[in-house]
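Annex B. Sample input.
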Amino acid sequence: MNERLKVYMTLNNISRKKMSEVIGMHYNSFNRVLEDNRALNATYIEKILVYCPDLDARWLLTGVEDRGTKNKELVELLEDNGVIERLSELIANKLKK
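Annex B, continued. Sample output.
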């Protein structure tokens, strides 16, 4: 889990200092958690997930992505941009030929 948390923090430009402040853990303790692969208790994990609402809890804890959520977000994005409608029209036109 710690490796995934480090990846998330890197991708989202969240420093170790900032995250330690957010979850209420001393910086040195948080650093040891990340570097020595120590466990975080549920309270700290909950604070991380509250601070990072886009962080997939299942992925953080298990390494398995929640595909349902990702697919739903993708469909919403495609619908908002009219992509699905245009693709449907293209397919319909191809089928007519």
